[in-house]
Design goal:
The chain folds into 3 domains: 2-53; 59-151, Up-down Bundle (Receptor-associated Protein), CATH 1.20.81; 152-404, Type II secretion system (T2SS), domain F (Receptor-associated Protein). 78% of the residues lie in helices and 6% in strands. It is built from 17 helices and 3 strands. The chain has helices spanning 25-34, 46-53, 59-75, 80-90, 93-107, 112-119, 125-136, 139-196, 202-215, 217-238, 241-252, 257-279, 283-293, 297-311, 316-321, 329-341, 344-403, and strands at residues 2-9, 15-21, 37-44. It has a 3-stranded antiparallel beta sheet with strand order 2-1-3. A hairpin with a 5-residue loop joins β1 and β2. α3 packs antiparallel against α8, α12 runs antiparallel to α13 and α12 (257-279) runs antiparallel to α17. The longest helix is centred in the C-terminal third of the chain and has 60 residues, at 344-403.
């Protein structure tokens, strides 16, 4: 996005207004400081902020768009404008107006890369690569490579969603059942126990207290706050990069979620860099575009720092060595080999393949590990509530048997 900053030159003391392209406000500040400029005020242009708020195509939709665009252009029977108009009619309604905008801009003489960049429907690496394809006369191959990139991205995100669907459904069902038992079943038994003047064990008293809490205004408020927090937390963290990085550090240390997040991000980063290196995009620009295509703030910041180091003459592996919790030694070693042999794109392809396979293996074992564990936890919770309800009845039965 385009950043406008008011800065002071460290050498001359002069205050001036500068503009630059950067993946984020934090990246812009780091680059200004590296150039000997002290930022006083840094803000994204209104157009950039508006574009940032716009939704992009999901990866699967982007893959379909580029696959169909290539097929239409390859026939040679339709003009680029006609192909883009046809595709705009086929995209979902929320994106249709901006898709038509791509066709209109091309009809007015704009390049395809500029029109796609302006639409905000794709991550920045897409228009960057298309611009190279247009200049080199290799647009069809570039579009095909983008389709493959987005197809892989959609494939792995789909696998993650399908692997988490069953555990999430079980967890939600267990929460609803627990709430229903505490709110409706337990109060009925409490009334019966009071009529019997039965002694209530400690475990049962704890469950009764929890039942009273869930039905009280305070309990309902706590439940509402937790639900709202779960919904709004990702949006809040998106605008708080430092806090988000601390949360991500914790997530990356978790037993199953940590490796899965790391493998997905490493595969995506390596695949994006490989694609751009094969197209001939300079490494510093490739890192900038990739940083904007990554969701995790930790990886985005590491890539933005890598841009500065690469622009200062440092090799890429030196930048990744500074973040061992994000880039394992295998990644650093393969990139060092690629830099040394002049085959960085090949090594990046190997890295993406390695971590795509690791992702497949981890997702394959996820259901076998999580589902039984989740069922045990649910069984303990539901069984504990039932046991706490039945314990007083056992005590009453024993008293009756002694009386007989």
């Amino acid at each position: 996005m385009k950043i406008t900053a008011t800065v002071i030159d460290e050498h001359t003391g002069e205050q001036k207004l500068v503009s630059l392209e950067a993946g984020s406000r934090e990246e812009a500040i780091r680059r200004l400081r590296a150039d000997g400029l002290i930022p006083l005020k840094v803000a994204a242009d209104d157009a950039s902020q508006s574009q940032k708020r716009q939704r992009r195509f999901p990866a699967r939709q982007a893959a379909v768009y580029f696959r169909q665009l290539r097929a239409l252009l390859k026939t040679g029977r339709v003009t680029p404008q006609e192909a883009l108009e046809l595709l705009a009619e086929m995209v979902p309604p929320p994106f249709r107006e901006r898709a038509h905008g791509i066709a209109n801009q091309v009809a007015q003489g704009s390049t395809l890369a500029a029109a796609i960049r302006q639409s905000g429907l794709f991550p920045p690496l897409a228009p960057a690569l298309i611009a190279i394809g247009e200049e080199a006369g290799d647009l069809l191959n570039i579009i095909d490579a983008l389709a493959i990139y987005f197809e892989k991205q959609a494939y792995y995100m789909g696998k993650v969603k399908s692997a988490l669907t069953y555990p999430a459904a079980v967890l939600v069902l267990a929460i609803l059942m627990t709430y229903a038992m505490l709110s409706f079943m337990v109060p009925q038994f409490v009334g019966f126990l009071k009529d019997m003047n039965a002694e209530i064990p400690a475990m049962t008293r704890a469950v009764i207290a929890l039942s009273n809490l869930t039905r009280s205004p305070l309990g309902l408020l706590v439940i509402a706050l937790l639900a709202a927090g779960a919904f709004y937390a990702p949006r809040y963290l998106k605008d708080k990069p430092e806090l988000a990085e601390r949360v991500e550090r914790y997530l990356l240390r978790l037993p199953i979620a940590g490796p899965l997040l790391k493998y997905l991000n490493l595969a995506r980063i390596a695949r994006a860099l490989e694609l751009q290196q094969r197209a001939g995009l300079p490494l510093n620009r490739a890192l900038q575009q990739t940083a904007q295509a990554v969701d995790m703030h930790s990886y985005r910041r590491a890539l933005e720092e890598a841009v500065l180091l690469v622009e200062s003459g440092q090799p890429l592996y030196r930048a990744f060595e500074q973040h061992p919790h994000l880039f394992p030694s295998l990644v650093v070693a393969l990139i060092r080999t690629g830099v040394g042999t002049g085959e960085l794109d090949e090594m990046l392809g190997q890295i993406s393949s390695i971590y795509e396979e690791e992702t497949d293996a981890l997702l394959g074992s996820l259901s076998s590990l999580v589902e039984p564990l989740l069922l045990v936890v649910v069984g303990i919770i539901i069984g504990g509530i039932m046991l706490s309800i039945l314990l007083p009845y056992f005590a009453i039965a024993q008293q009756v048997s002694r009386g007989l």
